[in-house]
């Protein structure tokens, strides 16, 4: 919970101005860090790169009213749910320096799932043989009900204008949540900047 | 029967694509600002 700035309003916030809450250790003495993952999506519009950001709700205890990349906590099912593609070897090697294979997979899959839940952008493709019969929990209903499974093959962090730009393009976004349509070249269902 | 979530998570608002230079003017966590700087560097000097 360090770094939270609950009570501050959007108007007074400045980049990098988060500050610790007083006596947070006394209020939350037993908090332990939990695995979380985020996905940084970059696309090139002309010569100007754009990043996908969202603002955390003012009711959040942690980082309210802050613009962040999509992401969130790892769910236990993230390590078990079938994926349509394996984790990119480069990304896997990087993650495996600090995590087991299962944990690395869960982190990658969690980033994809959270991106879908927060933006509606689904990085997925149909799973051979259709969606699994097993129930992997509420978090995965949006994917599995449509017969899609997450793509663990994430953008490579060393190519922000190459691979990382693609997930936002028609070729990579497999399904736009809500509209129920496949890749059609349209933007995800949220307001575009500019 | 599974039931799909019907809406984007409500706790995340104003989702949008933001130009890199404009993003730096938004209220950001420190780490996010640092990452944006790194993205800008990689864009100008690709590996």
Could you give a short description of this structure?
Chain A has 194 residues and is α+β, with helices and mostly antiparallel strands. Chain A contains 4 helices and 9 strands; from the N terminus they run αβββββααββαββ.
Distance between the termini of chain B: 48 Å
Strand neighbour order, sheet with most strands of chain A: 2-3-4
Tell me which oligomeric state these chains represent: heterodimer
Number of helical segments with 4 or more residues of chain A? 4
Mean pLDDT of chain A: 68
Uncertain parts of chain B: 1-6
Distance between the termini of chain A: 34 Å
Unreliable stretches of chain A, pLDDT < 50, 5 or more residues?
1-11, 156-194
Radius of gyration of chain A: 18 Å
Largest interface: A-B, 57 and 39 residues
Percent of residues in beta strands of chain B: 15-25%
Tell me the number of helical segments of chain B per DSSP (H or I, 4 or more residues long).
2
Radius of gyration of chain B: 16 Å
The amount of helix of chain A comes to: 10-25%
Write up what this structure looks like.
The complex is a heterodimer of chains A (194) and B (47). Chain A has helices spanning 24-27, 89-95, 101-119, 141-144, and strands spanning 36-38, 42-45, 48-56, 67-68, 71-73, 121-122, 124-126, 148-150, 175-176. Chain A is of the alpha+beta class. Chain A is globular and about 50 Å long. Residues 1-11 and 156-194 of chain A have low confidence and may be disordered. Chain B is of the alpha+beta class and 47 residues long. Chain B is elongated. Classes of the chains: A alpha+beta (194), B alpha+beta (47). Chains A and B meet through strand 2, strand 3, strand 4, helix 3 and helix 4 of A and strand 1, helix 1 and helix 2 of B. Strand 3 of chain A pairs antiparallel with strand 1 of chain B.
